[in-house]
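Figure 6 in text form: structure in, sequence out.
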């Protein structure tokens, strides 16, 4: 299992799209969220869009591997999503924020986590603004949250700076392939 984390707007989703093209054997886990869908987002594809009550019911039932509140909305990884892929023997990628990545580290220490860092704070802001999905207030809120998230970088053994997309995608692919190779070797022994 692979966890890709880092501040919003750093390019996690973009990098993962490139990674899945290069490694189609990977499965991306579809998260649940209470955030309203953005234009073009599809339920069950981009996220499972839940009401706050539905989300809370899953929390109470212990259905989440990890969950967190981010910018006023809740996000979480449903155990059922993960197990569907892991039971089929497929490697799974989670794209989650830092609080969730910490919970996964506690619950599943064998998961390989990669922190995606921006080349600079200015570049991060420019990407959030350029994506065009957030109001100026939401961009500021995400930048404020990013301060704490950037401070978490030393917690992660693997860090990829998303400067040039092609180079960063290659670096991420190399980490995943090396981890998969190490796991296969270990299993063969
Ligand atoms: P995240 O999933 O981390 O929130 P996104 O993948 O949505 O981030 O990327 C945020 C914005 O930054 C998008 O508009 C994307 O096209 C752009 N972006 C991603 N990687 C790079 C890069 N290496 N250089 C420039 N822009 C990038
Ligand atoms: P966005 O609103 O931009 O889609 O996501 C906001 C933040 O929540 C991003 O950093 C994204 O990676 C994170 N996120 C998405 N799904 C999950 C999840 O299942 N769990 C956690 N903890 N964070 C998530």
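Output sequence:
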């Amino acid at each position: 299992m692979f966890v890709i984390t880092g501040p919003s707007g750093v390019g996690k989703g973009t990098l993962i799209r490139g990674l899945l093209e290069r490694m189609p054997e990977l499965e991306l886990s579809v998260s649940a969220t209470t955030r309203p869908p953005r234009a073009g987002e599809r339920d069950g594809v981009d996220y499972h869009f839940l009401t706050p009550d539905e989300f809370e019911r899953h929390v109470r039932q212990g259905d989440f591997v990890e969950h967190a509140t981010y910018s006023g909305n809740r996000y979480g990884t449903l155990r059922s999503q993960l197990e569907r892929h892991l039971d089929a023997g497929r490697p799974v990628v989670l794209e989650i924020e830092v609080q969730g990545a910490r919970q996964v580290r506690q619950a599943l220490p064998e998961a390989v986590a990669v922190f995606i860092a921006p080349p600079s704070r200015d570049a991060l802001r420019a990407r959030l603004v350029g994506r065009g999905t957030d109001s100026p207030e939401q961009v500021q809120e995400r930048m404020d949250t990013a301060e704490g998230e950037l401070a978490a970088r030393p917690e992660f053994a693997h860090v990829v700076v998303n400067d040039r997309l092609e180079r960063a995608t290659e670096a991420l692919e190399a980490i995943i392939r090396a981890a998969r190779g190490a796991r296969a070797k270990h299993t063969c022994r």
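Caption detail: The mean pLDDT is 95.
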